[in-house]
Amino acid sequence: MDLDPLACDIARMTIWLRLCGPSHGSFPTPPFLEGNLVCGSSIVGPYEELAEGKSSPPSGFPSMTLMAEPSRSIARLCEKFVQSVIPERRRAQAEDDLALCRSLMPGFPEKAEAVRRMRREFSPVHWRTDFAGAAAHGGFDVIIANPPWDVILPYRAEFFREYIPDYGRLDTREAMKAEKTLLARDPAVRRIWQAYRKRVTTLNAYFLKTYASLQPRRGDGTFLRGHNNIYKVFLEKIYLLLARDGLCGIIVPDNLNIDSACTGLRRLLLQKTTIRELVTFVNRRRLFDIHGQYKFDVLTFMKRRPDPGAAFDAGFSWYDPVWLDGRPSAAHMAEHPLNAERYHQRFRYPVSAILRNDPDTLTIWEFGSAGWMDVLGKLKSFPGIGNPEEELHILTSTEFNMTTDSDLFRRGEDGWPLFQGRTIHHYNAGFGPVERRVDPVEGEKRLARRRRSSPDELPDRNYRLAWRVIAQATDSRSLIGTVIPPQVFCGNALNAAEIIFKGKTVSDPELLSGVNVILSSLCADFYVRLRSAKNVNAFIVRSVPVPRDIPAIMKLGRLALPLYLGAAFAAFRGSVPEMPDPEERIRRIALLDAMTARLYGLVPEEYSLVLDAFPLLGAAAKCLYREAFSSAFAKLIEKNG
């Protein structure tokens, strides 16, 4: 099955050669060569579950018998297929085709022409008749798939690079201007572009209407947002095509585990199938021709409702696929550092843990071992930092988009700095250079209009928190943030947050610094790394569990004040001197991290598991963190007798 006719031809030829080998004589054509190689879109067609028994082929459906008759040539086989089988299938598909037309081409007046045009544009597959034998069996026993991972949106770059020279070298503003000029100048290209957009929009609407899992809801019934992706449609379609107790092996992005828009698919898998194995790979060994930090799942499941107490084999952040077949030889493990056993841990993952940890969106937390579940349980005993019902919480915001607000940006020294992700790091608001600035009057005017407030009420005139939006669980750290000074703006690679305490926005240095210490800790980052795929969005940060021991938080904040350097933080530090020495800083940060871990109630074994979640964190830094925690824990034991 493939949408590309060339791919079907290659498959046909490959099977022919594999079965018959190169031969100068005549030999029978394999009878299934045409009948079981279908060119079309496997996800466009009637929505029907083959295992339900409603999908058996119409009575007197003779195509499989006809195709089973041996033929002495490919030409004769193709002729038989075109003259007999295809018309027979079309007659059986007529009713379904009209139903598809109503979804894909509403308002088209002429039924016969609508069907022809629909087939031509969308290439639907009617599994019940195109694979009559499987339908009669009640579905497929085994399906193996590696579906496309494309978002269902018009790809502007892919389209316009065919018409605009050097399109890939243009920045965003130049590209948009070139597109607009081309479409205004060339009516033919404009028609092609409009038809392309319409087709994608139509398909998107069809998938949303047809596939239930693409309309994810929380446990309370509210809808969850997210882009449609073709692999999501494929996964639900595969479930429909499997026979009872049928098996599927599929490769999908790891967004399936954690993306809120995949809640419907996770509900389908956890409630209606028995997951046998879920292993997530990091692409650092370039198993696929995509970015080395991209992660993907190798998922196998059976179409059978799970038993009570169901669990599946799980492994996360693997690198070497050889481990899927069991422990490899010592020689193989020695060939590459990423082949080592410590990167390929496997454990039994109870389905009940998923239902308990996140009953609303059913997140499959990417644990490194079973012990990580216990650590997460301790962390989640505290409310999220964005919970508005708590007297201490944060209010998150975004400011300027680097594309749509680019008219405000300027080079040079005039204006307030525009901070981007690379500008900051932990306890450092000057980590990277400032490349753009914004006139404060114009910038605040635009932000005030969006927030429906006056410029005086904007948070940019006070100290506040900010964190990087773009992150990877395969980086040394994921949640990277700090306190930023007044009179700066944030680009879209940074999100900002205000501290709300007892119903009021506050900028108390000790409280603000203390919340930053907790969000900068390895414990908070451990939680985020389990949740985030590529972006640390506001939803994830607001959900970070944070203890609400206010005196302890303010103590952490006081100890961290020397870490904020520069004249911009002179008022923030008050009389506390700076701590610029790198060795002193890392020791103070390690102490703060140990105190935060104790605030969460972790013991040494659990803190070691947290450190294990950061394989790219330097060995020297880990040693300092362990020493600081051991010392803090020993003092606690001594204090409590």
For the structure shown, list the relevant keywords:
641 residues; alpha+beta; 5-stranded antiparallel β-sheet; 25 helices
Level of helix content? Answer: 40-55%
Radius of gyration over C-alpha positions, nearest whole angstrom: 29 Å
> Spans of 5+ residues with little confidence (pLDDT < 50)?
59-68
The backbone outline, from C-alpha atoms, is globular
CA(first)-CA(last) distance = 70 Å
Output the number of helix runs: 25
Largest sheet: 6 strands, mixed
Summarize this structure briefly.
This protein is an alpha+beta fold. Helix content is 42%, strand content 13%. It has 25 helices and 15 strands.
Would you mind describing this structure in some detail?
The structure is a single chain. This protein has 641 residues and is of the alpha+beta class. 42% of the residues lie in helices and 13% in strands. It has 25 helices and 15 strands. The protein has helices at 5-20, 32-35, 63-67, 74-104, 111-122, 127-130, 132-137, 156-160, 172-185, 187-210, 230-241, 255-258, 263-272, 330-335, 351-357, 371-379, 440-451, 509-519, 522-531, 538-542, 550-560, 570-573, 582-599, 604-612, 619-639, and strands at residues 140-145, 242-253, 274-282, 295-302, 311-318, 347-350, 392-397, 409-410, 416-419, 437-438, 464-468, 481-484, 489-490, 494-501, 504-506. The strands form three sheets. It has a six-stranded mixed sheet with strand order 1-2-4-3-5-6. Strands 7, 11, 12, 14 and 15 form a five-stranded antiparallel sheet that branches. Strands 8-10-9-13 form a four-stranded mixed sheet. Helix 4 packs across helix 5, helix 16 (371-379) packs across helix 24 and helix 24 runs antiparallel to helix 25. The model is unreliable at 59-68 (pLDDT under 50).
